[in-house]
Every structure is written in structure tokens, then in C-alpha cells.
Amino acid sequence: MNVRGKSASHGPRPAPMRAHWRTAAASLVLCALTGCGMSDGAGALFVDPGRYTLYRCEDLAARRQVLATRENELRGLIEKASESAAGSVIGSLAYRSEYDSVLAEQKLLQRKAGEKNCSFAVPLQSDQTLR
Prior knowledge:
Layout lengths: L15 H21 L20 H25 L5 H29 L9 H6 L1
């Protein structure tokens, strides 16, 4: 027995903070690996599969435009953040999950549009002149 009444036979225990960091790191790795196994990417975890069930083709086309705009904004923010040394890490932490979610939502939207036989093709200039 040592001075405080604890047995000295036990080895040093990790600090409580170190144990929390190990748990957090293990959880992060587990989440990352879970996302890798999904066909639609990690962002599919945050997208409701039935989200676009009641949408009409016009609604899907409008939402598709909103998602494309947001994808471009996020891609620009990620690229801008990656210009600095620590920026790529910060960009990934700040924007990557939303970017993955937008991509997964676009895939779902495209799938639903295909099921509803929607056409998002912009008419060609020659088609407009013939009409």
C-alpha cells in the first residue's frame, strides 16, 4: 500500500482525458469506415430516402438547380480553404460533410426523377428555332 491507500501493484492508468480522446478517435474512424462501405457515399446517412416521393418533375428540376448551386458554393469554399497550410483540414471539417450530403441528395433526386420519367434536358437552340 502506498500513502493514499491504493495498491502500488497496478500500472499507471491513462489520464481520463486521454481515454476520451481514444474513444472519440475510434468513433470517428468507425463513422468514416461506415461511409466508405455505402454506395452513395457518407452523405447518404443524412438524406431521407423518401424525401422526393411526392415531388413533381417541376419541383425536382427546381430542387436540382438549388443543389447544383450549393454544390458549387461548397466546392469553392473547400478549394479556397485548401490554399493555406491548415486550410484543407479546416475545410474538410467545416464543409465536407455538407458537401457529401448535397452529393447524396443529388443522386437521390436523380434516381427519383428517373423513376418518374422526368426530363431535365435543356432544349437545344436548334430545337427552339424549329418550333
